[in-house]
Amino acid sequence: MKFFSYIMVYRRFLLVVLTVLVLLPLPIVLHTKETECAYILFVVAIFWLTEALPLSVTALLPSLMFPMLGIMPSKKVASAYFKDFHLLLIGVICLATSIEKWNLHKRIALKMVMIVGVNPAWLTLGFMSSTAFLSMWLSNTSTAAMAMPIAEAVAQQIINAEAEVEATQMTYFNGSTNHGLEIDESVNGHETNERKEKTKPVPGCNNDTGKISSKVELEKNSGMGTKYRTKKGHMICKLMCLCIAYSSTIGGLTTITGTSTNLIFAEYFNTRYPDCRCLNFGSWFTFSFPAALIILLLSWIWLQWLFLGFKYQETVTLVLFILMALLWFSRDPGFVPGWSALFSEYPGFATDSTVALLIGLLFFLIPAKRLTKTTPTGEIVAFDYSPLITWKEFQSFMPWDIAILVGGGFALADGCEESGLSNWIGNKLSPLGSLPVWLIILISSLMVTSLTEVASNPATITLLLPILSPLAEAIHVNPLYILIPSTLCTSFAFLLPVANPPNAIVFSYGHLKVIDMVKAGLGVNIVGVAVVMLGICTWIVPMFDLYTYPSWAPAMSNETMP
């Protein structure tokens, strides 16, 4: 037993060592660039799926192993770790930092509560709408972490208010005393009651009896080990938790910057198919917003059936937020010329990251408040100003681990391309072309949805994109036909508390059991995959001409692995 306990303690170390050694015969025996790249791909995939090493550390392995095995020079690998995506991420994080610093997210949430009222059904829809909206621009983790304390406080207020109403009604109909109120009065007016007892004693009657019995009853109720007065109160808590968790994920589907999987897909797609200029912030929103809206509404209905809210800084942050969104949408909307046409001399130079960086710089420039000091004469004078966000605040929000992780994925994809592994995978998967395209999409979507429950979303999409792209090229299908639904389905990690950070955050409040999340999440997963399949077969088709193999996608070569 002691031996097994040591194994459990050092299981991650053993997994790293064994993975490297067990797969080592692959490049040693075959000794081709394809097999050497496949060896690195398998090692990175196993480390990402098991998280034997931190995801960002694993993402650095291609920069170490590609030069050692002669697949790519170190300078070329390093260039993959900082691309246009990272500039876009920096600008978005500037926005997110200012939103949270000046509590704009709380203002939006509380305003929503004021609009929809305290009815649990409409309140849930209001929270889901505001959380999904925030998740379009912030990470789903940050959104859930910011929204959950507000939802928890509101839920507790509703439960307490309903309990007081019920107690008042019981007192009225039964003519009995509300012990909860009596205890409060005896506690708050303790000295008064004592004084009354001393001045007006009642023969043969002990006035403390009612207090003692009330206190005993209170202790008995408090010792029951339950946090909920009624089953309905428990259901409201469960409902509020899951509506925050799911809407913070669903909202991220609607924008390229809404979730890391969308960003990874967009950068990978634009890198692999540079001649296709069909994918940008506006086009992504156009096809994903209807799908996300349907998923959000159906999830709200499903959860209801299953379980029963400016200051100056806020205003400036909101204005910059709206300005960033408008510039993203209007850069190249497709149906009319966008503002990028003003720079027709340099087509394709200005991207979404250009907008993000421009607005991001304004957050460091625009004054938020004056910094004052007291002179020796006692006069208070301004000597400087503080911007909307500082570099230190930005650094605390910037997910450098995701930036490195994405860079590792790009490096891995470049290695697969350079070594010929992508072509080899595509050729081997070409027999799947005999299956109907909708069935291939459904299989890949279900595979992605299943894998993302046990692996992180960024790791899942980073691992599968270099596999699904050659598959689409091999069967001569528009790559967007398979990659778009697979990317969206990567976010459908609704089943388990460990599936994604929002699930873990709401689970930590103790209202939910794992079985609650499995039952609810299974329904949302089914709804999500079904809506994505519906969208990819209907309104998304004409947007990207998915039935036609595009000229920007390469034809697969006849190279095979020796």
TrEMBL record:
<feature type="transmembrane region" description="Helical">
    <location>
        <begin position="119"/>
        <end position="138"/>
    </location>
</feature>
<keyword id="KW-0739">Sodium transport</keyword>
<feature type="transmembrane region" description="Helical">
    <location>
        <begin position="437"/>
        <end position="468"/>
    </location>
</feature>
<dbReference type="GO" id="GO:0015382">
    <property type="term" value="F:sodium:sulfate symporter activity"/>
</dbReference>
<keyword id="KW-0813">Transport</keyword>
<keyword id="KW-0406">Ion transport</keyword>
<keyword id="KW-0769">Symport</keyword>
<feature type="transmembrane region" description="Helical">
    <location>
        <begin position="315"/>
        <end position="331"/>
    </location>
</feature>
<feature type="transmembrane region" description="Helical">
    <location>
        <begin position="81"/>
        <end position="99"/>
    </location>
</feature>
<feature type="transmembrane region" description="Helical">
    <location>
        <begin position="239"/>
        <end position="264"/>
    </location>
</feature>
<comment type="similarity">
    <text>Belongs to the SLC13A/DASS transporter (TC 2.A.47) family. NADC subfamily.</text>
</comment>
<protein>
    <submittedName>
        <fullName>Solute carrier family 13 member 1</fullName>
    </submittedName>
</protein>
<dbReference type="InterPro" id="IPR031312">
    <property type="entry name" value="Na/sul_symport_CS"/>
</dbReference>
<dbReference type="GO" id="GO:0005886">
    <property type="term" value="C:plasma membrane"/>
</dbReference>
<keyword id="KW-0812">Transmembrane</keyword>
<dbReference type="InterPro" id="IPR001898">
    <property type="entry name" value="SLC13A/DASS"/>
</dbReference>
<keyword id="KW-1133">Transmembrane helix</keyword>
<dbReference type="Pfam" id="PF00939">
    <property type="entry name" value="Na_sulph_symp"/>
</dbReference>
<feature type="transmembrane region" description="Helical">
    <location>
        <begin position="284"/>
        <end position="303"/>
    </location>
</feature>
<keyword id="KW-0472">Membrane</keyword>
<feature type="transmembrane region" description="Helical">
    <location>
        <begin position="42"/>
        <end position="69"/>
    </location>
</feature>
<keyword id="KW-0915">Sodium</keyword>
<feature type="transmembrane region" description="Helical">
    <location>
        <begin position="520"/>
        <end position="541"/>
    </location>
</feature>
<feature type="transmembrane region" description="Helical">
    <location>
        <begin position="480"/>
        <end position="499"/>
    </location>
</feature>
<feature type="transmembrane region" description="Helical">
    <location>
        <begin position="346"/>
        <end position="366"/>
    </location>
</feature>
